[in-house]
Design a protein that fits this description.
The complex is a heterodimer of chains A (about 325) and B (about 250). Chain A is built from ten helices and four strands. Chain A has one domain: MetI-like fold, CATH 1.10.3720. Helices cover about 70% and strands about 5% of the residues of chain A. Chain A has a two-stranded antiparallel sheet. In chain A, helix 3 packs antiparallel against helix 8, helix 5 crosses helix 6 and helix 8 packs antiparallel against helix 10. Chain A is mainly alpha-helical. With about 250 residues, chain B is of the alpha/beta class. Chain B has a single domain, classed as P-loop containing nucleotide triphosphate hydrolases (Rossmann fold), CATH 3.40.50. Chain B contains ten helices and ten strands. Chain B has a six-stranded mixed sheet with strand order 6-7-8-3-9-10, with helices on both faces. In chain B, helix 3 packs across helix 4, helix 3 runs parallel beside helix 6 and helix 6 runs parallel beside helix 7. The chains are: A mainly alpha (about 325), B alpha/beta (about 250). The interface between A and B is medium-sized, with 20 and 27 residues.
């Protein structure tokens, strides 16, 4: 055998170079973006900034109500989107037969993720507020309670918006559970539902949580859809009402109220306020808070996911 | 000759248009080991899965013919499949333990059957692990993840898990094909012990294994049952030319 010297792989060398440069560029942009926000924003942040309401035409004070509104809407959104998404995915993956009709549904779900979010806002206004809300008011004779923009409808609309994310990641998680584990369960005399509940779902939990994480990030950062759905320019009072059982009262999120929303707050400070330059530090502060907030919500879900994975012995 | 446990009459099975099993008729005796041998794709695993209706889980499978266990037609429309699968346990080619603890794996079957009493479950765990000859190895590791055991231990744990629902028949689909010789020997020894209480049907690629563990052997070829007789007869004096060619290694 003749041993030849290896030829220089120029194409490979160039490609790797291009990959390196593009990647560094990406990291640089990210660092610039986060760095700028951090440096400009950190100075404003104080306990008062996080708790107080905006004052003096938004040029002073804090963003407490906006933080509260964001957390409230996002939590309610998760409450609507995750069960609905997970059950839909279970149906599609475990029960639905592979027919023309179910294929259309699958394709639609994937396409839904690509619809501009403003369209979801209009859908929420038309469907939830003007159709469901108004009819609820009529049926329960509640005057104008449900048929107007409110926290509840913002959450349900955002839930619809993030539904494809939850469904798709759950579908993937369900699909990744090995068939052999299902066979083992059926072989021991388990019914289909017992198999799903005891074998499939526990193993799919990390994947479902990944979907939830993505959904939270997406929902908390959205601005366009909630424009029509009860996000308020300025609202000093928190959307809270006392829920009383007998004499015992606890403050609860009041879903029929309007609310402030961080992403929206940043938008209006930058474009609608009387003096955008004066509000600039607050804008940076709010942006930093929004990023940290989504990060914290993500971290919580990531910790849960880590625990489940550990339980499954997959680490 | 022992009593007959499973009776199969004129069984045909189709995957879509393709016929995978052709007119299978055989009587499987009670409390004996019956081995199915034959080249890959001959239908022996498919036939094994007929006995606990695991083929029902696959789309486009059509079955006609009759299969009786203790005189009951298991393809009767009114039969409860879940109940059938409790009576007919199955051990698969590759260990398919759940990613749970050793204990949780064993009690999975009893739990879905409604047993909740911790004491009863503990007893089941100890009994089945003893039956599967693995109690001494895992008694201190009951709360460890089952997937941390060795391959051979995992497969014996699968057998213990199958025993926990108290079946009368155990189907084994090449249970030792992924194991080393020592683990294989342990599984074979176990099969030998288990046949005192259970009817065992085993699919194997390994003819020496069939010869070692089984009382009866069935030779399948291209979806047909070519010959079914006592194992010694099949391996020393088969009546069909095809069987002789296969067991002597001339094809397959």
């Amino acid at each position: 055998m003749e041993l030849k010297k290896r030829k220089k792989d120029i194409a490979g060398f160039v490609s790797i170079g291009i990959v390196r440069i593009t990647f560094s560029f990406l990291v640089l942009i990210l660092l610039l973006l986060l760095g700028k926000i951090f440096i400009e924003g950190i100075g404003v942040i104080s306990l008062e900034f996080l708790i107080d309401e905006p004052r003096n035409n938004m040029t002073e004070g804090g963003i407490g109500p906006a933080i509260f509104g964001t957390v409230a809407v996002t939590l309610l959104m998760v409450l609507f989107a995750v069960p609905l998404g997970v059950f839909s995915a279970i149906y599609l993956n475990e029960y639905a037969k592979d027919t023309f009709f179910t294929r259309i549904i699958r394709t639609s779900i994937n396409n839904l993720a690509g619809v501009p979010s403003i369209v979801f806002g209009l859908f929420g206004l038309g469907f939830f507020i003007l159709f469901i809300g108004k009819n609820l008011d009529e049926v329960f004779q509640t005057g104008l309670l449900f048929g107007q923009p409110a926290l509840l409808w913002a959450s349900t609309t955002l839930a619809v918006l993030v539904l494809p994310i939850v469904i798709v990641s759950t579908l993937e998680a369900l699909n990744s559970v090995p068939k052999s584990h299902r066979d083992a369960s059926y072989g021991l005399g388990a019914t289909k539902w017992q198999t799903i509940k005891n074998v499939v779902l526990p193993q799919a939990r990390p994947g479902i949580l990944t979907g939830t994480i993505l959904a939270i990030s997406r929902g908390a950062g959205e601005t366009a859809p909630i424009l029509f759905l009860g996000a308020a320019f300025f609202l000093p009072n928190l959307p809270v009402a006392d829920l009383c059982i007998g004499d015992y009262c606890i403050p609860m999120i009041n879903p029929t109220e309007q609310f402030m929303y961080l992403a929206y707050h940043i938008f209006i400070m930058a474009t609608q306020s009387a003096n955008p330059t004066k509000t600039l530090p607050i804008q940076y502060g709010s942006t930093l808070v929004l990023i940290v907030l989504t990060f914290l919500l993500n971290i919580t879900a990531i910790i849960f996911r880590y625990r489940f994975r550990k339980l499954l012995g997959r680490l | 000759m022992k009593e007959t446990k499973i009776v199969v009459k004129d069984l045909n099975l189709f995957y879509g248009d393709k016929q995978a099993l052709k007119k299978i008729t055989m009587d499987i005796p009670d409390k004996r080991v019956t081995a199915f041998i034959g080249p890959s794709g001959c239908g022996k695993s498919t036939f094994l899965r007929v006995i606990n209706r695991m083929n029902d889980l696959i789309d486009h499978v059509k079955i006609d013919g009759e299969v009786y266990i203790d005189g009951v037609n298991i393809y009767d429309r009114s039969l409860d499949i879940v109940n059938l699968r409790k009576n007919v346990g199955m051990v698969f080619q590759k260990s398919n333990l759940f990613p749970k603890t050793v204990y949780e794996n064993i009690v999975y079957g009893p739990r879905i059957n409604g047993i909740k009493d911790k004491k009863v479950l503990d007893e089941i765990v100890e009994r089945t692990l003893n039956q599967a000859a693995i109690w001494e190895e895992v008694k201190d590791r009951l709360n460890d993840n089952a997937l941390s055991l060795s391959g051979g231990q995992q497969q014996r744990l699968c057998i213990a898990r199958a025993l926990a629902v108290e079946p009368e028949i155990i189907l084994m689909d090449e249970p030792a094909s992924a194991l080393d010789p020592i683990s294989t020997a342990k599984i074979e020894e176990l099969i030998h012990d288990l046949k005192k209480q259970y009817t065992i049907v085993i699919v194997t690629h390994n003819m020496q294994q069939a010869a070692r563990v089984s009382d009866q052997t069935a030779f399948f070829y291209l979806g047909e049952l070519i010959e079914f007789d006592r194992t010694t007869t099949i391996f020393t004096n088969p009546s069909k030319k095809q069987t002789e060619d296969y067991v002597t290694g001339r094809f397959g």
